[in-house]
Amino acid sequence: MSRRIAAGGRLRDRFGRRNPAPVFGVVGALLLGGGLAVPAFETLLFVWGGTALFVAFLLRFVMTGSTVSSSVTTDIYTAMAANVRRLTPADDHEYIPGSGGVTLVAGDRQFDAAGERLLRTHDGLTAAETVSDQLSVLIDVLVNDLELAARATATVDGERATVTVTGSRVGTAELFDHPVASVIGVGLARGLETPVAVEATREDGALVVVADPLEGHGESPPRDEENVTASE
To answer: What's phi and psi for 162, nearest 5 deg?
Structure first.
């Protein structure tokens, strides 16, 4: 005897189960009704009501979309990264640019870098003259476009970049090709057109990524330390 089992339901959107669109819709309708009932304030109430309904429309039809929770993403990444770590326990990670994109090299093995896929749609990451120029774009992408972190601060000393990230959306129990570190490594390797060595560590609850260009750029004259910050 065969049995059929199925499950379905409303997908979680970026607001979870508490999308405020209905609230704004009700408030907008009430304000419009108030404008009809109180002619003395109809202009003000109509403006407020129309604004509330417009916000409700945006929240309901424009800003929603299915997502995966941060904890689920972290669990998937941690398991996969740990499996890869068994193949290559080497801690030296280098992001090497090539004609087919940027490749992660760890020890004597090559891997597809997570950052290569994450940055695939960002055409603004073109060749840059300096590390700080490229980092100013990358940390903005991390925080505001990819939403991988709540806040990111970059410090450039000579050609070595140190990026400190707080509120990482992906957990840091495992750091092999961590999405944040991978975006930094791939972005710098692509923009500077040179291999970049990347080291990721955990310090006081923050994720610290140190990136160091390997060829040519290390011979640049020393410059004053520069700071770049991005936050939500």
So the answer is: -120, 120
- β-partners of residue 209 are 163, 200
pLDDT digits (tens, 9 = 90+) for 57-79: 776 666 555 666 778 788 888 88
Asked whether residue 2 is domain-assigned, the answer is: no
**54 pairs with which residues across the strands?**
none
pLDDT digits over 128-182, tens only? 677 888 888 898 888 888 888 888 988 888 888 999 999 888 888 888 899 999 9
Domain that holds residue 177: 70-231
Note whether 118 and 147 are within 8 A (CB): no
pLDDT tens for each residue of 203-217: 888 999 999 998 654
The answer to whether position 1 is within a domain reads no
- Exposed e or buried b per residue across 70-96, where buried means at least 16 C-beta atoms within 10 angstroms of its C-beta: eeebbeebbeebeeebeebeeeebbbb
What sections of the chain are H helices per DSSP?
21-37, 42-57, 70-87, 114-118, 131-140, 179-192
For residues 49 and 120, membership in a common domain is answered with: no
- 127 and 215: one domain? yes
